[in-house]
Amino acid sequence: MFRPKLPTMPQPTGIVTPPTVIEPTRTTPGTPTTPPAPAVPAPVPASTRPTIQLTPGTALALVGGGTAVVLVVGAVLVSMLLAVAITGASVAVCAVVLRSLLASDARRR
């Protein structure tokens, strides 16, 4: 019941091809060969996409947007760090109070 059921490997089906035999070719040293003629490169078609032009206004908008994003992300991270610090301090205060209460109860007996 608690043993896992392992699947069995399926057997290959269909036609199994035998490995191909590669026969070595003979080369005779010293026979000059003519280098192939250099291919003429095909002309590159012009792009139909419009180019992006940055004007001073768009550059200023991009810088302002990036600054705003950095400030917002920084504020969120700082607030999360502050929340963790406050939570840790309150837990420490609770631990000190509980320790004090338990110690004073043990002294009264």
Brief account:
The protein is mostly helical and 109 residues long. It has 1 helix and no strands.
Essential attributes:
mainly alpha, 1 helix, 49% helix, flat
- Overall shape: flat
* Mean pLDDT over the full residue set: 83
Tally of DSSP helical segments: 1
- Evaluate the radius of gyration: 39 Å
Notes on the protein architecture:
With 109 residues, this protein is an all-alpha fold. It is built from 1 helix and no strands. It has one helix at 56-108. It is flat.
Question: What's the topology here?
Answer:
Layout: H1 56-108
